[in-house]
Amino acid sequence: MKRSYIIAGVLAVAAVAWVASGQLGDADQAKEGRKTPADLSAMERVPSVRVNQQQAEARTSEVVLRGRTEAWRKVMVKAQTFGRVEEVLARKGRRVATGDVLIKLAPEDRPARLAEAQALLDQRKIEYEAARRLQKKGFRAETQLAASKAALESAEAAVSRAETDVANTTVVAPINGIISERLVEIGDFADLGDPLMKILDLDPVLAVGSISERNLSRVRIGAPAAVRLITGQTIDGQIRHIAAEADPATRTFRVEVEIANPDAAIPDGITAEIQLPAEQIFAYRISPAILTLADDGEVGVKILGPGNTVEFKPVQIIDDQPEGLWVSGLPEQVTFITVGQEYVTTGQTVQPVDEETLAPFVAGDPS
Predict the structure, then answer these.
(1) Domain count of the chain?
(2) Does 26 fall in a domain?
(3) The pTM is what?
(4) 286 inside domain
């Protein structure tokens, strides 16, 4: 064999080997650089949520109002005539009864004017009797008798006005109560209509608050109520009035609770909390943390529905206590989603984990 053929064969084998080694290297590099396919099964996993099953409890709901106490009656005693204040017989804070003398005004010339009116009345009586006798005998016309009678009645009216004017110089208490304000002193001049004293009737005393439109139908006149004063004292009372017209500014209705106060120990204007018992309803005590909002802003909770699907249920908060909220508007038995409710949506299927099964592990007991 010629030497040139041997050299050509060696070169051909070397070329084939070199090409083959490049392809194998590329294949190894491609294999090493290839990414692991994404694990799409994670997207199909059902999310786990913590749940707690509860049974509704019968509870008498309460409507709580913030308000204040008010006197049953407040009377501003005013002058019914004019004159100088001559005596003030009732001091501020004193209890008075109807008819007690409070203030005396100087009589001035009133007694003299009364005497003058009385004398004129006596004259008119005599004139009328004479006219009546003459008319009966035919010596006096009917019109003259009528004029004499009119003069008599005018004199009687003048005497009545003078007597009233004299009587009005003595100012008396129109109601039972306590003098809360004394607005004049001896020597002051009081004109007709000027305020003199203010009297509060504190028996009974009223606890007054405003109830919302939503709760109006839950209370009624005559129902019992409890009033807790800012002093810590709690007194029983009774609803005596519910306004028939709403306050146009607040859309609330005035409610008055009557409380016996024979010794006037409860003053006017003290802060009070009015507890009005309403109807008995079924409710749940929950943590405020599980409350959630619907897309329209409605407050509610997420619960476990059929097939472990998430359901949103609106609730009504009926009481707020340190140990939790009381809510109504749910079925008699509910499985609440207590953890993870913010990360699941209505209609979504979830994997429930009962809180009771987690309790030993949370407490550190793996058994």
Answers:
(1) 3
(2) no
(3) 0.59
(4) yes
